[in-house]
Amino acid sequence: MSKKLLLVDDEQPIREMLRYAFEKEGYQIEEAESAKQAREIMSRKRPDLAIVDWMMPGESGVELVRSLRKDELYTDLPVIMLTARVEEKDKVKGLDYGADDYLTKPVGIKELMARVRAILRRSSHADEDDQLVAEGLTLNLATKQLSVDGEEVHIGQTEFSLLQFFIEHQNRVYSRAQLLDFVWGQAVYIEERTVDVHILRLRKILKPFGKDKLVKTVRGMGYMFTTKSKAAS
Fold it and tell me: What domains does the chain contain, in order, with CATH numbers?
């Protein structure tokens, strides 16, 4: 599957140049001309990597990166800072604010592509061993497989994503609307009751192992994933 890149730069010619080069190499490209537009795109479709210009009208690219690192949904999003600022102090600031790499304009396309490949390679290697474990449930984030008490269990993609979100955000209540935004994406227009259907499916998968009560209904509020001790209380 081709990797998705987000280009964040207020200069259209630069975006067009990068889009042309990366699409030739098989990447999927999204473009944003501002930090605000970048957030809107990310809320619909999370990229595999973002290339962000520093100097943009309104919120700067470095401030965008800084805010992403404070957001639990994007703390691990790979980011390359692309900027005309060449002084060492600027590079240090960009890296300190959360950029994974820093390149100055004008940039060589071949070098930029090599940096992108290197970061994505490191990211994919990390993902191979990336697992979430809670209460006997093990989610392999690379293979999208679920094991319960050591036994591999078939699970649908949506239920997997829902369970992943719950395990990453334990003991917090989320409304149906919030779950739709975080799991399905803000641009997906479906009924809130769809959440209930997938919650039922998830519980059905977990029930044979006595794990269904980990997904708790909080009347009038929504759902939460909680530990056995809290679920029994």
Answer: 4-128 (3.40.50.2300), 131-232 (1.10.10.10)
